[in-house]
Design goal:
This protein is an alpha+beta fold. The chain has helices at residues 3-28, 47-72, 77-108, 115-137, 174-198, 208-213, 256-260, 262-266, 297-312; strands at 35-36, 45-46, 167-172, 220-225, 229-234, 237-242, 246-254, 271-272, 277-284, 289-293.
Length: 313
Amino acid sequence: MTDRTRRLAGSLLPGVVIAAGLAAFLAGREQLPATITNLGHRPPTDTGAMAAALLGVPAVLWGLGLLGSALSGRLPASRAHWTQAAIQTIVTAVALPLVTALLMMLAAAPQTPEPLLMATVLPAAALGGGALGLLLAGRRSPAGLATAPPRHDAVRLSLADGERGVWQERRVVRAVDWLVAILAIPGVAMTAVLVIVAGPTGWAAAVVVPVALTLLPMRSYRLVIDQDAVRVSLGFIRREFPLTSVVHAEPAVVDAAEWLLSGALRGAGASLLTGPGPALSLALADGTRYLVTCRDTTAAAGLINTMRDRHAA
């Protein structure tokens, strides 16, 4: 499957899901009750209003996503790709569970589905939809070839002819550990309280725990630089930049504000930062820059620029 075909399939996927939900509702609406009875003492839900909400929200979001993807074409290739990938992932992750909720409620009418079933199926649909949207987005297009060596004032390392250098850095992102704990521990306590107070309905709060646990892989960060490429990963997120696509590298410092707003300031997919502090700035052949967290930025940048000199020679 070509990149263009994959992107087209990813853009159309939410629309197909929404259309399928609408078709299922229209096909069976004559047999559906006017209202669906809710658990507890809440008033019944109007079937038409429920369908309009569960189909309307993803439909509007899908339309905005198509507009955003079209406008992102004005961005540099790297930023356009990651902007479109983010839009595609978010829209699919929202559309799939909402349409799934509609189908489940229609199948269970005139009652609402079991809360535990909803709490299990809908997060799974959201995660599956997001993963599918990201998969269809594909990998970032190559940045092109950097033909000239790094500028003369760029930092370099003193390596003998034929000597190879390898940089490797690993770290655990403690902020992710704290975030998982903040979500999971109160989630367990809240579930226990709600089950006692509200009965089986209280199990719906347990959805917080698996969502928190899915963040655990994001606690592992790795940066590797060798004679061929710069490779960086944060959990499932992996990026690789061949040295032939890097014009030069230089040390940088990212403050807290820039770290929090890096996606908005630099464009989606323009950095992989675990927090504020020292960062390695890669100037790529397509004119974009990419920031990665690094402890000894001077040594890392010097190694990249020295290896680039050899590639350009």
